[in-house]
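Hey, quick one: can you model this chain's 3D structure?
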Amino acid sequence: MLIYLHGFNSSPESRKAQLLASRMQASALAAQLACPQLPHRPSRAIAVIEEEMAKHAGETITFIGSSLGGFYATWLAEKHDAKAVLINPAINPQAGLRALASTQQNLYTGERYELTEEHFEEWARLVPPRIMPARYLLLVETGDEVLDYREALERYRGCQQVVVEGGDHTLRTFPEHIPRILAFAGLGADEKPSPTST
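Sure thing. Here's the predicted structure for all 198 residues.
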């Protein structure tokens, strides 16, 4: 079972979520994907994800998190002894998003809200003291204009890492990595391993 966690001010309607859903539907794996809409408050987002997990009790769950979703995926993977695929993940949103402390609007749902100190405090509480490298597959592009990909390489040292030159924060090469993602989650064979793997 894959649970896709979208990024900051995003939704299940995002490009990557839709591409993954389409590919899994074409492979008769549609029932093996969930993509909940995450609330802006970190504590509530975690609660929603864990509610989704409860619907699939007894199944092996792999998280796939993009940007802020990667941050949540890390916390959940460590808490629940699960695996996670991380796409250009946020490392310290409690610091990196402070410059955006003001009125925000979700790009897809149109919801408006205030990004406040409570958000930063909640994110700070979601940083695991340590991570187990074997849980993770990290996918980054060096052209990420939002986050420094080198911070992800350091944070997830020892994990499976795929580093692609160029690109941007959306991970332009995402479609190429879907077979590898499904194989990592135990849902398919990785027919064409990426030569950029490290």
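One thing worth noting: Strands lie at 2-5, 33-34, 62-66, 83-87, 103-105, 112-114, 136-141, 160-164.
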